[in-house]
Amino acid sequence: MNARVLPYVLILPVTLFLGLFFLYPFVLVAKQAFGSQEGWSLENFREVVDYWKFPISLRNTLLLAAAVVPVQLALALLMATMVSKMQKGRDLILYIWTIPLGISDLAAGIIWLAIFEQSGFLNSMLNGLGVIDKPVNFLTYQHPGVVFLAIALAEIWRATAIMLVILVAGIGLIPKEYYEAADVFGASKWKQFTRITLPMLRPSLQTALVLRVILAFEIFAVVAALGGTLFPVLMGETYAYQFDLLNSGAAAAMALIILGISIGFTLIILRILRVPKGASI
Fold it and tell me: What is the pTM of this model?
């Protein structure tokens, strides 16, 4: 086979898969979002944006992403650095830390619901310490801060491992000679982290942040389990349009809005953490 043709033959199955399961559904969603009885229009987008819950769900989604992603990044960097320095038990610790990856979003929400509900662990602990006399229902409209905190903690616990795995792999690709040379010249551990680890880890940070930010804008099941209608988010409103209101056009418009926001933040991350030409890691 001609060497010029072989690469195209090899990528043909992937191209067909993406065309069948991504591009074609995307075209259908776009057709629903921009379609109306009069032809192409922005009516579905106007309906979605003018709805009173839209700014609230947009704000909640952005606030949750802004609160969760930086904390997850810091934790993932700390955990990845600790794992990379371990001589014994590294695989066991990494396995334990990545257990939440095997738990679904809804299951994670239910686990944390068992902590914050009236008969849950938090009430039992506070009652045992004498802080409260009777169980408190934390997940109500009277405690919006607690609802937000519960959702944020559940997401941090559930999804930090996604970034951890990527960063551990990235740290493993950094040549050990760089650290050995830094030790010879007396560089502190913090300086080695800021001058060697972070710059060399930039491609992995790109991947981890892009993936996590996209998933942050798609959060739904954890919010549904812990906050329900008390904490509306964009994906929850998309579900409501599609299955509660049976308005597929508005649901498609919401999906495209979420996609647009995700693409925008992805471009920002790629711009800020752009990898210099010629970088090998």
Answer: 0.86
